[in-house]
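User: Design a sequence. Structure:
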């Protein structure tokens, strides 16, 4: 009787193990998102005067944007779309945002703090970052290959990309493919379709 009971329990445990293993494996599988390459290393100062580097984001899925607080054109829309991402992933310690100013001479930590409060930033992993201007421009243009520069002939005096970069937990830039099978590289931070796409892909990376 004991042997039969033991065999029966063992069979149930074996069945459970067979059922559970695929679930565990699936959770840690890589998604279909393309790896573009490692995020460029950086160290900047956030709105609280704290030094923040790419190492602080390891273990988190995060979004990077370049902006400036006095931008009269695309930045307000980018900020609003970042707020949508904050709302979607609020309270998740594995999610973060890095908003890097391209006008650091004006955007001091205090200015960035006031800007964050005005926007209604609540997520503790959303850092507004400032530092040396040349360093930031090099980070944008050479590190991320995203345009940022001064132009006195445009509104606000600065120009920059409206794209969002998506970084996985291992510090790699990731993206989806377009309908032709080509990596999109970055996500449109101005269009609803781009925001919806990055939401979906953040969820995928959080599951990795």
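Assistant: Done.
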């Amino acid at each position: 009787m004991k042997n039969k009971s033991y065999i029966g329990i063992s069979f149930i445990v074996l069945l459970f193990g067979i059922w559970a293993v695929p679930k565990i494996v699936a959770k840690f599988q890589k998604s279909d998102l393309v790896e573009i390459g490692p995020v460029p290393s950086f160290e900047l100062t956030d709105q609280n005067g704290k030094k923040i580097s790419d190492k602080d984001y390891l273990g988190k899925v995060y979004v990077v944007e370049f902006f400036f607080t006095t931008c009269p054109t695309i930045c307000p829309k980018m900020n609003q779309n970042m707020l949508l991402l904050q709302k979607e992933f609020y309270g998740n310690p594995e999610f973060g945002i890095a908003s890097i100013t391209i006008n650091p001479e004006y955007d001091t930590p205090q200015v960035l703090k006031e800007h964050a409060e005005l926007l209604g930033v609540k997520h503790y992993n959303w850092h507004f970052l400032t530092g040396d201007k040349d360093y930031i421009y090099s980070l944008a243009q050479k590190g991320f290959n995203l345009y940022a520069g001064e132009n006195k002939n445009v509104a606000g005096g600065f120009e920059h990309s409206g794209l969002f970069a998506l970084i996985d937990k291992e510090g790699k830039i990731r993206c989806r493919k377009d309908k032709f099978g080509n990596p999109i590289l970055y996500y449109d931070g101005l269009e609803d379709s781009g925001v919806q796409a990055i939401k979906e892909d953040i969820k995928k990376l959080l599951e990795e």
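DSSP finds five helices and eleven strands in the chain. The first strand starts at residue 34 and ends at 38.
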